[in-house]
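Moderator note: this is an archived Q&A kept for reference. The question asked for a predicted structure of one protein chain; the sequence and the answer are reproduced below.
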Amino acid sequence: MTTHRIRVGIDVGGTFTDAVAVDATTLELLGQVKVPTSHHHEDGVAHGIVEALGRLLAETGRAPEDVAFLAHGTTQATNALLEGDVATVGLIGIGAGPAAGLTRKLAALGKLQLAPGKSLPLAYAHVTDPDDAAAVRRAADALVQEGAQVLVATEPFSVDRPEGEQAVVAAARSAGLPLTAAHEITSLYGLHKRTRTAVVNAAILPRMLATADLVDSSITKAGVESPLMVMRCDGGVMSLDEMRRRPLLTVLSGPAAGVAGALMQERISEGVFLETGGTSTDISVVRRGKVAVQHATILGKKSYLNALDVRTVGVGGGSMARIGGGKVTGVGPRSAHIAGLPYACFATLKDLRDAKLTTIRPMAGDPEDYAVLDAAGGRFAITMTCVANAAGRVPEGDFARSDQEVARAAIAPLAEALGVDVATAADRLLDAGTDQVKKVVDTMIRDYRLDKDTALLVGGGGGAASVTPHLAEVSGLEGRIARHSEVISPIGVALALVREQIERTIPGAGQEQILAVRAEAEAAVIAQGAAADGVEVEVTVDPQTSTVRAVATGATELRTQDRAHRADETERLRTAAASLKTDPSQVTVLARTSAHTVYGTDVRRTLRATRHPVRIVDADGVIRLHVPDARVETSRVADAPEVLAKLVRETTSYGDGGVRAPAVRLLLGSRIADLSGVLDPEPLLALARSELESRTADESVVAVLEVRI
């Protein structure tokens, strides 16, 4: 019997390693396993990865050759930096005259603080002439004598003139250590920040190389033929070879896996993802179908590492209630897990017999106001999960669901102390916990200018039900818990797309230079295994910083989803109308492709001004794009360049801020090509032509233009 192939995602956490198998065609979850993370095994975390894979294949009845895609996420790089468990970096500065002064100052990078009392171990050597191979070798040998385990070459202006760093790397190979050039890690201007990013990358390089080799050989021995991918901190995956070059891209990748799962499985196009564990909630944003990223702060300094913009609040499913003076004073940050206490709602009624409410100091330094129950079965913590169950917020079948009668019995002594009924006590505690999360969510909605009418709250993680449902109600936003929320992170790893981001500082960038950056990003993901026909590239040009950025994404195989459910026309219309906040009779179909339908309506703002909001809905009935005011035009690919040129000419604005072309999206087949990051009309049209090149002349193309004011 022929079986569908599977995609495997493995998430290596601090305590457990979770693995899931997803059908490569339908993307449905087939199986999940959990094993202890093997930090102390002689093969390190690689042992746990292979153990999880073996158990997963056995559970799903699949063979190693059935694995079409295998990726893992790991906190190893993050933990190495947090714990100060890094290699000594030998930094070779290059330059003569004024340049020498600039590079010699980089020796101060050895003062970067890792863990308390631990600084980044760094030795510095200087060479005046990078082409003096003998001098470079002497510098490298001196660094080895000082304990260097990895070497980095850096020179001012190496982004534009990399020959000096390349010459030093070539000459220093005789030292027998891993080597990197600063311009290879990031090609943005700024000697100090560029070098700091390269040095931190180098500090974790030897350890990550050893793990990569172990995992790779173990997976190969297990009979898996598909190449191993690794989760990046921006929500995509990269090849193992790319991870060997830039392990820094795995730092902060833990939260990225969860939001990748929400993006791919839950198909969020606009909203906030809340991943709630036992102790904390990670909050991130999806805007117009893309995760929000920013340059990450590492070791207290801004880097050139693009990572998920995630903000963490110390409230989770295990966060303990705090009381004083006959009222609720707070929730958390101490969790029942850290305090070593069981959740009261997962006890039995017999365990809770004769329960008495008291307060404790869970850990040294904590306030003595954390509420616990001393009962026949021992001491139990009153947690966010307990009160969510008592309030009926945890749906049937949820990972955090408990016996409702037990949950209410657990809250009863607290309710009595507060002088209220159980339902009111539960709501007060939920208010106290979710208020901290709500403040951050409100800030992120404001920071990213999300449309509150369409923004969705999606909860993931084992503790999702303790936060998301109540927060959705008090904030007035639509909310839901992700399917299989307790394994949303490994699902995200399994479904993630290959991703590469190329950034260049190009003052006055012309269309040829912009297209070259785009081509470089596209080639990079194809080289890592992405199917060429499915690669999408988003280009952004920032005129203020002269930065050209191209983000390419693609699947390792052309995925065709044979889903059991496809939304019919009526369902898609209702979805669009609900999002547009109008009656379906007021909604018009503006355009169609094989994969998308464009719906619009008219909203009169004044007697003379009318807005034309648009929603693009896919075949599953999911809104893929919200545009508050747009112009929509359908043409053939053969005619599209001329049609687009006319539309862009008519909708480009001119003012004190310069020329501002419209934000353009093109619907081509199953794709939405996002060209909204380009403000200059000529490069915009050049990018549009590049998107059309591989299409047949008679194919339909839909242009959605959003005028910038």
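Archived answer notes: The longest helix spans residues 191-221.
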